[in-house]
Amino acid sequence: MATIADVAKRAGLSRATVSRVLNNHPNVTEDKKRLVREAMEWLNYVPNSTAQRLRNQKTDTIAILVPVLTNPFFAYLLEAMDMVATKNQLQLLICQTRYSKQKELDFLELLRTKQVDGLILTSYENEWKQIEPFSAFGPMVLCNEYERHTKVPIIRMNQFEASYIGTRHLIEQGHKRIACTCGDKSNLAKDRQAGYRKAMADQGLLVEEEWMFSNVFDIEDGKRVLRTILNLREAPTAVFTGSDQVAAGMIMAAKALGKKVPDDIAVIGFDDQPIAKVVEPSLTTIRQPIEELGKTAMEVLIDLIAYKKDTKHQEILLPYDLVIRDSTMSKLKSISI
Amino acid sequence: MATIADVAKRAGLSRATVSRVLNNHPNVTEDKKRLVREAMEWLNYVPNSTAQRLRNQKTDTIAILVPVLTNPFFAYLLEAMDMVATKNQLQLLICQTRYSKQKELDFLELLRTKQVDGLILTSYENEWKQIEPFSAFGPMVLCNEYERHTKVPIIRMNQFEASYIGTRHLIEQGHKRIACTCGDKSNLAKDRQAGYRKAMADQGLLVEEEWMFSNVFDIEDGKRVLRTILNLREAPTAVFTGSDQVAAGMIMAAKALGKKVPDDIAVIGFDDQPIAKVVEPSLTTIRQPIEELGKTAMEVLIDLIAYKKDTKHQEILLPYDLVIRDSTMSKLKSISI
DNA sequence: TCCTACGTTGTAATCGATTTCAGAAAACGG
DNA sequence: CCGTTTTCTGAAATCGATTACAACGTAGGA
After folding, report:
1. Considering only alpha carbons, which residue of chain A is nearest residue B77?
2. Using one digit for the tens of pLDDT, what is the confidence trace for A150-173?
3. Do residue B152 and residue B298 come from a single domain?
4. What pLDDT does B336 receive?
5. Most buried of A183, B85, B123, B168, CB within 10 angstroms?
6. Residues A195, A97: one domain?
7. Greatest CA separation for chain B
8. Number of structural domains found in chain B
9. Regions of chain B short of the pLDDT cut 70
């Protein structure tokens, strides 16, 4: 592999001059430029980027921490981030934590060991006080998650409000007994639960604790939980889920049990993923502005890297949408309207 | 940021000794080891990995080229590769080509500029003769794609056979007019088409060129193409698709037009993605061994990197499965059996 | 006691680039 | 034609690690 020294020798010039040509320094005569170019071509020279990184003290690489790639929500989020990164000549190091605290910490080390110029966290497993210290080692942004007392910039949707609206929609369809499957311990999930609870309380509806479910993520979880719900004494007539995957699983399980959606049991999803339109009945869901989330998070991070200014706290809230389809609106009713 | 020199100074030792402790060299006394460890702790020292990369001439990073992350097939493939990579302390640089020839070439440069130790190609856009030369710059593996005359190792499924079996299944259900939507110009697609054609020919069935469709990838494409198919004079009664996404789109469009699947039009998918079980009727499909593909490709690449031996050509063929569900088997028929 | 062998440590070269600084050459003004 | 400024180029330091080699000290054998 040819190095800059080889090019210099062949061109009969110094390494410094070659480097100048490489970086378009103004003060090099056309003559020497040509010599250098010819030598580079002849030797098939390509600068070694590791050496450049060491010398320039930057990597042009951003780490993105996601739980899993196979969750479409994160795939689309990454897609949006990638668009912006590419435009800015940045590489993405995609890090799957698989919901492991240890892996998360390992990946955060990337910032400390200067393997990346910045980092985006799209969810986290550890306590925030374990994570925050890493933000001292390099720019960091929180996307789709949040933390109240921190200087790390946050880009997210108002989960509380969105959940409130979603739950209220179910109530407006006449449901009084509504289950909720969005609760794990993340702040995001807590917000969703809080939104759900407030909507219920505002309409004077009681929430039974046996209607609340945690750790419900995918299609199989959805099937399992729906069967549990239908077996409850005085079973709920609607479910506010935290994910389209879960809602889709519920619809499948309901049909398998001979129950009609939404007449026997109504279901609302979250995200508006492609699957929402594929299931039958199609899913009423809360659209998240995924592209906006990813795009904005990346832009904020790039700003942070460029200006190296002390992170002044900022929180960007993006808008949601309630998308009403068939899994909450009885066809009979909608015709009668 | 503390460097190895700072540690050395604080420990009252040389950089060499610190480095030896870092790399568990045997010949360092416990005494000095302790001194070094204390200094490292005190200074919060972490080795700069860029410097290590430069010195050691390796990056411990693998590039994976995929068209898009949002296609679940590739998400699952990456998931499998990530498992093996993580186990081997390797980082993955995930590169989305978005079906762009230029981007593909840009990413291949990673190998030439020594930014990665190896590269896996999961599909490609350029001519193979554009791509092959890059394999001279570093280890490269082809996964889920193939090329006849090359020394680059190949890990794939027999698309020809799988498509033959899939098409034959449709024929066995009594279909004689079968459309095919798997044709673009990749070798993979050509194989699928060839398998389809052979199955048809073996049963003495004719293939009309207007039944063949190219560039059909996602749900929307599926909807669009199905409408076209149903508008043909003497419309086909079955479709052999190249993807579960497409097949799912077709089922939705068929239902919207009041057609029954599989009685009016039967559909077979490809991949056995989660969506295959979600749609109604559920999809008959050809299961690809995604985990095996990803895992094996990564293992072969790691071997290649470790032994630096000249790539002896190898081609690994993994098995497929025909998964029969409702989109090809009329309920009436299956009951009557 | 002297010589060899081995274990331990440090010095300095190295990986492949960029950049400061200083000197040479060219341009310019009077 | 000389002094000053500007433009161009190269030598050498630098980024932060690893490692070949040399040097030193100590233990063991004769």
Report:
1. A70
2. 999 999 999 999 999 999 999 999
3. yes
4. 35
5. B85
6. no
7. 88
8. 3
9. 308-312, 331-337
Give yes or no for CB of A51 within 7 Å of strand C: yes
Residue B245: closest CA among B279, B206, B214? B279
Which residues of B fall within a CB distance of 8 Å from A278? Answer: 219, 248, 252, 275, 278-279
Burial tier of A312 (Cβ tally within 10 Å: 0-12, 13-18, 19+): exposed
Task: Enter the tokens of residue B12.
Answer: 């009252």
Residue B102 has φ and ψ, to the nearest 5°, of -65, -45
The residue assigned the tokens 């009041």 is B258
DSSP H helices, A44-131, are 49-56, 72-87, 101-112, 128-131
Band (A130; pLDDT cuts 50, 70, 90) = very high
Residue B323: which residues within 8 A CB-CB, separation 6 or more?
A: B272, B276, B284, B285, B286, B287
Same domain, A18 and A93: no
Residue B19 CA and nucleotide D21 C1' are separated, in Å, by 17
A102 has a chain B CB within 8 A of its CB: no
Chain A CB contacts of B56 under 8 Å are none
Question: Over pLDDT 90: what percentage of chain A?
Answer: 79
SS3 A166: helix
Q: Tell whether the torsion through CA atoms of B252, B254, B257 and B260 is positive or negative.
A: negative
The torsion angles phi and psi of A156, rounded to 5 degrees, stand at -160, 175
Q: Are residues A11 and A136 in the same domain?
A: no
- Contact call for residues B201 and B231 (beta carbons, < 8 A): no
Identify whether B308 is part of a domain.
Answer: yes
3-state secondary structure (DSSP) of residue A266: strand
Please count the CA atoms within 13 angstroms of the CA of A100 that sit on its side-chain side: 10
Q: Which residue of B has its CA nearest to A223?
A: B278
Whether the upstream peptide bond of residue B262 has omega within 30° of 0, thus cis, is: yes
Partner-chain contact A79 B59, CB within 8 Å: no
CA distance A305 to A88: 12
B287 three-class SS: strand
User: Which residue, among A57, A278, A327, would best test binding to B if mutated, counting the most B CBs under 10 Å from its CB?
Assistant: A278
Q: Tokens representing B99? A: 């079906």
**Test the A interface: residue of B122, B261, B278, B279 with most A CBs within 10 Å:** B278
Name the closest residue on chain B to residue A246, using Cα atoms: B278
Residue B52 lies in a domain: no
CB of B204 nearer than 7 A to strand C: no
**pLDDT score, position B331:** 65
**Looking at residue B113, what is its pLDDT?**
85
Domain with A314 in it: what CATH number? 3.40.50.2300
Whether residue B127 is contained in a domain is answered as yes
Question: Are β-strands B154-157 and B140-143 bridged in parallel, bridged antiparallel, or unpaired?
Answer: parallel
Same domain? B89 vs B110: yes
Number of neighbouring beta carbons within 10 Å of residue A21: 21
Q: What range defines the domain where residue A41 resides?
A: 4-55
Whether residue A153 is found in the same domain as residue A297: yes
